[in-house]
Amino acid sequence: MAALLIPRRNRGMRTRLGCLSHKSDSYNDFTAILPDKPNRALKRLSREEATRWADSFDVLLSHKYGLAAFRAFLKTEFSEENLEFWLACEDFKKTRSAAKLASKAQRIFEEFIDVQAPREVNIDFQTRELTRRNVQEPSLSCFDQAQGKVHSLMEKDSYPRFLRSKIYTDLLSQTQRRLS
To answer: What is the pTM assigned to this prediction?
Structure first.
């Protein structure tokens, strides 16, 4: 009797795990991804602006709504920590207080770089160790190598998938429909 229950339990577990791992990038309601006053934001986003996001990864990152759409896409892929780390580094570079520099560096390291960090980014051992040493005597450039690796990973891996995603194509369709 017990032998008959095991396969049934395994099938149920597989189904549940399958549902958890299924990635959906379908967004019919863009209010979830656009910052501040989403309906007005979507109306202000032109087709040309959204189309320019495909010109380069940096153009996408420099646009407020492009950044929001890309963040929403990364969430569907369970990899938003890459963008969050990149943004934390950009913010870190604006730090002017030496006292704040050390505490911010430590927080970023513990949150994104350290082994088993809550939002650990995927970087190689050498980069992780170099960053660990850099954080001991932090400077505005102590995360540059790690940030560059994460930027490159997003640009080569996530960005092309974003451009093919339903999130982006639906957003382009919505901006096109407004013109009609």
So the answer is: 0.77
- Assess contact for 112 and 119: CB atoms under 8 A: yes
Let me know if residue 4 belongs to a domain: no
Could you give the angle at the alpha carbon of 113 between the alpha carbons of 108 and 115, nearest 5°?
A: 130
Per residue of the chain (180 residues), give pLDDT as tens.
Answer: 444 444 444 444 443 333 333 444 444 444 455 544 445 556 678 899 999 999 999 999 999 999 999 999 999 999 999 999 999 999 999 999 988 999 999 999 999 999 999 999 999 999 999 999 999 999 999 999 999 999 999 999 999 999 999 999 999 998 877 655
Domain holding 81, by residue range, is 47-177
* CB-CB neighbours of 161 under 10 Å: 14
Cα dihedral 43, 45, 48, 51, rounded to 10, equals -120
On whether residue 3 sits in a domain, the answer given is no
Instruction: Tell me, yes or no, whether 40 lies in a domain.
Output: no
> Could you give the CA distance from residue 126 to residue 71 in angstroms, rounded to a whole number?
27
Q: What is the CATH number of the domain that holds 77?
A: 1.10.167.10
Number of domains in the chain: 1
Distance CA 103, CA 88 (A): 13
**124 located within any domain:** yes
Residues 118 and 107: their CA atoms lie apart, in Å, by: 11
